[in-house]
Amino acid sequence: xxxxxxxxxxxxxxxxxxxxxxxxxxxxxxxxxxxxxxxxxxxxxxxxxxxxxxxxxxxxxxxxxxx
Length: 67
Hints:
CATH topology: 434 Repressor (Amino-terminal Domain)
Structural class: mainly alpha
Number of helices: 5
CATH class: Mainly Alpha
Radius of gyration: 11 Å
Order of helices and strands: HHHHH
Number of strands: 0
Number of domains: 1
CATH architecture: Orthogonal Bundle
């Protein structure tokens, strides 16, 4: 669910992958790989992405069934 949530939240906020990368202080390529399900990030990266998006960690990783 992380890949789907990340992309949806990023797009809802009108951010490009590059803009989010700058806000979260992570490489743009990492966001690309995560959104495409090609890589599983570590907890520190997920925390940075949540901070960059201005959402809680649980919001970023929650499954759609729990919404």
